[in-house]
Amino acid sequence: MLNRILYRILEGVNRLLDKGHSEYMKARMNCGKDVVIKENVLIYCPERVTLADGVAVGGGVTIMAQGGVDIGEHTMIAPGVTIMSVNHDFAEMKPPSRSTQRKRPVKIGKGVFIAGGAIILPGVKVGDSSVIAAGAVVNRDVPPNSIVAGVPAKLIRERYRPNVRARDKDNLTLFDLGVEEEV
Fold it and tell me: Is 181 in a helix, a strand, or coil?
């Protein structure tokens, strides 16, 4: 009985600490309205992160933002995703611990869904309304309205409503994809 009580108390304290940590991180980042950051999110250099309105970051996400990370409106990031804007420069003939860091910004567009375990590498731009499949390793830019998967990530198909004419698909908005914007 006493063990259960102690467990519940510690569980509550952990929830408070996680909530306090996400609020602390939000205060250090450039955050829009209605941003949700779940527990166990690790963000290096939060001052170099911009989260637009309605961004949701799942638990266990790691963002290495030394090179800058910009995430657009209504983007959802599932648990276990890694976003990196920095890497070691392996062209140098030095051990990795002594090598120079290469910082390249990551830009993720509006209405993007990044599924669990995906990895976004430095310098990548993900176009609006794209989907990154679970476990994908994205090392190149992703065009808007695309679905990519694999290691390395490759285009699977374009994403748009079947009733959208081919000539109009370059001009899709979040509304066209079923996301309502506030007026």
Answer: coil
Domain limits for position 46: 2-170
For residue 17, give the CATH number of its domain.
2.160.10.10
Decide if 71 is inside a domain. yes
State the pairing for strand pair 146-149/154-158.
antiparallel
Assess if residue 84 is contained within a domain: yes
Distance, in Å, from the CA atom of 105 to the CA atom of 31, rounded to the nearest integer, reads: 17
Residue 176 lies in a domain: no
List, in sequence order, every residue forming a beta bridge with 126; answer none if it has no partner: 108, 142
Phi and psi angles of residue 99, each rounded to the nearest 5 degrees, phi first: -75, 160
What CA–CA distance (Å, rounded) separates 94 from 55? Answer: 39
Which is catalytic among the residues 21, 26, 38, 88? 88
Establish whether 74 is a catalytic residue: no
Quick: pLDDT tens for 26-81: 667 788 899 999 888 999 999 999 999 999 999 999 999 999 999 999 999 999 99
Total tally of structural domains belonging to the chain: 1
111 in a structural domain: yes
Q: Is 21 strand, coil or helix? A: helix
Say what the pTM is.
0.75
